[in-house]
Amino acid sequence: MTHLEVREELFRELAHHSAVVTIITDEAFTVRYASHTATSFFACETILAIGKEFFEFIEPNQIANWKEAFFEFKLNGHAGPTLQPVILHNKKKVFSVELVYLPAGNNQANWMIRLSDITDQQLKEETLQKTTEHFDQIFYKTTHDLKAPIRSALGLLNLAENASDEQRSEYMSLVKTNLLKLDKFIDELNEFFSGNRLEVKNELIDFKRLADEELKFVSGLAEHKQISISLDVSQKNQFYSDIFRVKTILTNLIANAIKYADANKKFAFVRVFIQVTSDKATIQVEDNGIGIEPQYLSKIFDRFFRANHAVPGTGMGLFILKDTVERLKGNVEVTSLKNVGTTFTVILPNLVRPTIL
Fold first, then answer.
1. Which residue in 66, 84, 230, 266 is deepest, having the highest Cβ count within 10 Å?
2. Where in the chain is the domain with CATH 3.30.450.20?
3. Which whole number is the average pLDDT over 297-301?
4. Is the dihedral of CA 309, 311, 312, 315 positive or negative?
């Protein structure tokens, strides 16, 4: 056995026992060798891939990226940025890719393609990213919900400064109510985090009681801005969903309507309608605020998007609203006319518990 043959045999032995998938093709990308681990990539026995074109095993929408990566590598000795998106999704597997160009003399050459299975790593990264995003949203929701009763209390205190003794006593009572609600919210938040509640819970919801509580949070702010708020709830059926998340939806919708009220209108209003049937709850919040321009309607649920920079905000409120609605397997729609008003409609399915016989 020649020295070259010994080296080739050693390479094949190393490649065969490596967890990394090793594939060698000729210049025309015909598969000449594949390690036994390549079965996970080819989705067939390795021997059946020998003699076939490598691109037969690549998803069609990724072939152009692969060819560009090969060209860049041959031209510059490295794949450049074109290799970065070359991650193969095949049979629910994800592989990172490394290329090696092997000149063989006599105007011949081979390509060595090394693939590392990073499926588990990718799944962990995606799970971590989703968890991080979820807690980012909880953090924003927390600060958002803490601000609502504080601003409401401040609005009431402003009103109390110039009020009669009788009115001042009434306003201070409402301030106390807001602070008690704030204290209750902090208790609920502690319970949420202590249970690490990433999952959706099925809890019996009394929408009238829940909506009344949420409106008390913002009553002072609404009165300070001279906004009339009305509530109409029709619930004859038991309804199950996640109370914490339904509160998030109500708080965001109502606070958003108050935030974008039109100061130029003499009679500003926010109307909340909730109708509950055996299979769903429909929450509709209507206002006659500043409205949304048509070109922004498709973007308002995007993270950090703000249609009106004249009003303070982070652009996270409606993003969180949509995400929360989707976590409850519902959907949200919006209609709006600039300078006329906006209506948000949220439909949530009844996550009623199955009957135990």
1. 66
2. 3-117
3. 81
4. negative
Q: Is the pLDDT of residue 55 over 80?
A: yes
Indicate the range of 108-122, 266-280, 299-313, 327-341 predicted with least confidence.
Answer: 299-313
- pTM (two decimals): 0.50
CA dihedral over 124, 67, 75, 42, signed as positive or negative: positive
Distances, alpha carbon 32 to alpha carbons 16, 41, 158, 165, in Å: 14, 15, 81, 93
92-122: pLDDT as tens digits: 667 777 888 877 666 667 888 888 777 777 7
Q: What does the pLDDT look like over 223-250, one tens digit per residue?
A: 777 888 999 999 999 999 998 889 889 9
Residue 245: C-alpha distances to residues 138, 192, 210, 326 (Å): 10, 11, 12, 11
Q: How far apart are the first and last CA of the chain?
A: 76
3-state DSSP assignment of residue 152: helix
Average pLDDT over residues 252-258: 87
Tokens of 23: 């594939």
Sign of CA dihedral 48, 51, 55, 60: negative
C-beta atoms surrounding 65 within 10 Å: 18
Candidates 3.40.50.450, 3.30.565.10, 3.40.50.1820, 3.30.160.140; correct CATH number of 123-349? 3.30.565.10
Domain(s) labelled CATH 3.30.565.10 in the chain stretch across 123-349
- Per-residue model confidence as pLDDT tens digits over 60-87: 877 887 888 888 887 776 554 444 434 4
Sheet with 93-105, edge to edge strand ranges = 31-34, 21-26, 108-117, 93-105, 88-90
CA-closest candidate to residue 257, choices 234, 231, 282, 278 = 231
* Greatest mean pLDDT among 143-147, 197-201, 346-350: 346-350
Torsion of CA 242, 244, 245, 249, to 10 degrees: 130
Please give the CATH number for the structural domain made up of 3-117: 3.30.450.20
